[in-house]
Amino acid sequence: MSCADCGNIAKEAREIVAEVGSEPEKVIPLLQEIQNRHGYLSQELVEAVAEEIKLPVSRLYGVATFYSQFRFEPIGKNLIKVCKGTACHVAGAEKVYSIISEKLGIEEGETTDDQLFTLESVACLGCCSLAPVVMINDSIYGKLNPAKMGKILKEYADGK
């Protein structure tokens, strides 16, 4: 990392702390803001925020590793969440998951080489009447089958 990057990271850490607050009870919102800005928790920015709020970096990592919402690696432009709850499982979620994995060449938690897609499975998306369901970014797609899923992936690959 260059010195220019160090300055930018320190500046961004100050901005985040100014926006969210520096109290110890603000650790989760601070981590959420870092992740909202970058899609994951970069080591440099977590360390800079810890320094800014005068807490040990281990405290921030302790919180971040406890909650599954936090990521430590960049994700793709499109985050695909496949629901594997009971209703989706019964309705064929595994077939939908398999077509996504096959077409993109990635497995759970992986990102495509072009950084376009990241694949995750989740316990429930709360859309049981639409089973099987997939969420891509903030959009929900329901009553899926492999053909529909393939068409949706192509739309996103083409720049939807």
UniProtKB/TrEMBL annotation:
The keyword Isomerase does not apply. Binds 1 [2Fe-2S] cluster. CDD domains: TRX_Fd_NuoE. Its EC number is 1.6.5.9. It holds the Pfam family 2Fe-2S_thioredx. It is an enzyme of class 1 (oxidoreductase). [2Fe-2S] cluster binds at C83, C88, C124, C128. PROSITE patterns: COMPLEX1_24K. This is NADH-quinone oxidoreductase subunit NuoE. It comes from Candidatus Thalassospirochaeta sargassi. The gene is nuoE.
